[in-house]
Amino acid sequence: MADDVEQQDGIGGADGLERLWTPYRMAYLRGENKPADHSAGECPFCRIPQQDDDAEGLVVRRGKLAYAVLNLYPYAPGHLMVCPYRHIAEYSETTDAEAEEIAGLTKAALRTLRSVSHAEGFNIGMNQGAAGGAGIAAHLHQHVVPRWVGDQNFMPVIGHTKTLPQLLQETRALLSGAWA
User: Fold this and answer.
1) For the packed helices 96-117 and 168-178, what is the interaxial angle rounded to 10 degrees?
2) Given the residues 79, 139, 141, 143, the one annotated as active site
3) Which listed site, 44, 59, 88, 138, has its alpha carbon 20 to 30 Å from 37?
4) CA-CA distance, 98 to 149, in Å (whole number)?
5) Across all residues in the chain, what is the average pLDDT?
6) pTM (2 decimals)?
7) Would residue 141 show up in a list of annotated catalytic residues for this protein?
8) Domains of the chain, with CATH numbers?
């Protein structure tokens, strides 16, 4: 939503820009949902699948060894993660069965996101360890980020703002209902 208050540039004059507020991002910037320690008891990826309500936890799909969940702080609409239930930090620690299910859920996520949102491409990846960019390094998670030509326009590049056209609960219900 654009702010009605005139913003001042560094010299004192109005800069002519409108503001799009994304206050939900402050929780991420403050680290409010990051675990206090690296134990399974503090880990959000361990707590989420234990909730009774998949919609509340933004769980899109459950498997036997892994699950798909929407990212609470998405890079793009439909950004989800595939996580093993087991509290492990690195891909090399997965069992063959876990690695196979993570791959299967990832493939299904791609098909579902493409059919629901008409994604034109994807970024898929795992950030391993704090040095590798993992926000929660103690629990393995693979990002699946749908992409569209031109989606990295001026908003994120210049405005440092991501726009999401739908509430996360609505996105979760759409993806969960379309998952084949």
Assistant:
1) 110
2) 141
3) 59
4) 33
5) 81
6) 0.72
7) yes
8) 40-178 (3.30.428.10)
